[in-house]
Amino acid sequence: MKTYLFYDIETSGLNHAFDQILTFACIRCDLNLNEIDRQTITIRLRKDIVPSPGAFLTHGLTPDELSSGIGEYKAALKIHKLLNTPGTISLGYNSLGFDDEFLRFTFYRNLLDPYTHQYSNGCSRMDILPISVIFRIFHPDSLLWPQIDGKSSLKLELIAKENNFVTSGRAHEAMSDVEAVIELSRKWFQQKDIWRYCLDFFNKTRDEVRINSIKKDFSVQNKRFRICLMVSTSFGSKVNYMAPVIHLGQSVVYKNQSLWLRLDLDDISGLDTIVDLNDTFVIRKRPADALIVLPALERFWNKMPDASQQSANENMEKIRLHWQRFFEFIQHHCAYKYPFVPNLDPDAALYQDGFFSFQEKKESKLFHEALDHQKQDILNKINSPRIKILAGRIFARNFGNKIDPLYLNHLRSSLKKDQIIGYKNDTKFNRQQGLQALKEIEQTLLNPGKDQQTMLNWLQDYIEKL
């Protein structure tokens, strides 16, 4: 049976690979959005995590709430099972842009398949935020849209407040946010034709078919391209969340990525200036992701500001004029490969090290199936280097009560050589950054409330004692 699993997470920070989920709340509904069941999973803060003060002031989770939670490993097993229940469509609000990647890394470092909830056993995923953007652009009267300084806002908490959604808790509380997303979804569900049309954007096959059916009617040196419209919150309200784009083709290296060039920017691809192609940018879209592609029909095109339309027309002429540079640009980006990150921390190596091999899955299964008191013995028998490292960290974080002292020293250190490196060549949030973030917050938060001050005091004490 197909069901929707609406979910939301609260986290220790914003880094998908290094921060951890602290609460996972979900409500399972039938396809008519009637509730079937709900649950909340609270997770203890790991000892190798420096909490982000900004995140904690936002979600307001207290030390008492977290101390009553379960360890990350057992939580990951529970969440993985929920999302992989046959027929589950997992979704949230900006879930494809934030929550899903958090889950992916959580599953990975806990030796669970990071991707099965996207395709296996009739499971799939979608996102209510892009659907809301479609309604905001093309059916603005379908909802009361909040504004900030005269600009429309797509923030869930403001939408819920503006439309008097009934929820059980405060904003940024995971279950309360799930309830708000379901209320919003019920608004969209009332317009069934549009709802069904939007669902196909999150079906990989149908999304690709729709894009491939758009005519190639822009010609450059007898080679034809698709001119389309792309919808994304990342473009912002100033351009009505829309951008004209040209479809460049498929990545040679990453078969699931199509490449797009935005046409409303001042200097697209450095066509009329000497720019290193490594400093140019394309949009990379994967089938059924949060980027929605529409044909450049007049009724859609006219939803863009006049300035965007004018820039697109000028840049299309520029492409024809500088066609050699344009084809060099395409060739460069189609062949582009993400740079190898040396000294990449194992927790963040999902994309660089790739899928688990058959042998790695076999050893992971043995680790999962062992009773808690047997996991140390299984750990000693694991041969796969990657699995041995990740399983060792699982054991230390959840069963051994002893994190690697060298790893903790890196978190405490302010030296560049001790930074823990992520897949974007970024770094794990460390003790020095935590204390600096606290200092900055205290300088801007002149009159903190009692709860805020209590939170700040706890964070100061916790981070200092790491």
Say how many strands there are.
13
Total discrete domains: 4
Class from helix and strand fractions: alpha+beta
CATH topology label of the largest domain: Nucleotidyltransferase, domain 5
Amount of helix: 40-55%
Q: Which CATH class of the largest domain? A: Alpha Beta
Q: Do you know the CATH architecture of the largest domain? A: 2-Layer Sandwich
From the N-terminal CA to the C-terminal CA, the straight-line distance is 47 Å
Mean pLDDT score = 94
Assigned CATH superfamily of the largest domain:
Ribonuclease H-like superfamily/Ribonuclease H
Radius of gyration from CA coordinates: 24 Å
Beta fraction:
15-25%
Shape: globular
Please work out how many helical segments DSSP would assign.
Answer: 19
Q: Spans with pLDDT under 50 lasting ≥5 residues? A: none
Brief description of this entry?
By secondary structure, this protein is of the alpha+beta class. The chain is 42% helix and 15% strand. It has helices at residues 53-59, 63-67, 72-83, 95-109, 128-138, 156-162, 174-189, 192-199, 204-212, 298-301, 306-321, 323-334, 350-353, 358-369, 375-381, 385-400, 405-412, 431-444, 450-464, and strands at residues 3-11, 21-29, 35-42, 88-92, 124-127, 147-148, 151-152, 218-220, 223-231, 242-250, 258-262, 283-285, 292-295.
Describe this structure in words.
The chain is of the alpha+beta class and 466 residues long. The protein folds into 4 domains: 3-202, Ribonuclease H-like superfamily/Ribonuclease H (Nucleotidyltransferase, domain 5); 207-334, 2-Layer Sandwich (PX Domain); 346-418, no CATH class; 431-464. The protein has helices spanning 53-59, 63-67, 72-83, 95-109, 128-138, 156-162, 174-189, 192-199, 204-212, 298-301, 306-321, 323-334, 350-353, 358-369, 375-381, 385-400, 405-412, 431-444, 450-464, and strands at 3-11, 21-29, 35-42, 88-92, 124-127, 147-148, 151-152, 218-220, 223-231, 242-250, 258-262, 283-285, 292-295. Strands 8, 9, 10, 11, 12 and 13 form a 6-stranded antiparallel sheet that branches. Strands 3-2-1-4-5 form a 5-stranded mixed sheet, with helices on both faces. The longest helix has 16 residues, at 174-189. It is globular, with a radius of gyration of 24 Å. It starts with a strand and ends with a helix. The mean pLDDT is 94.
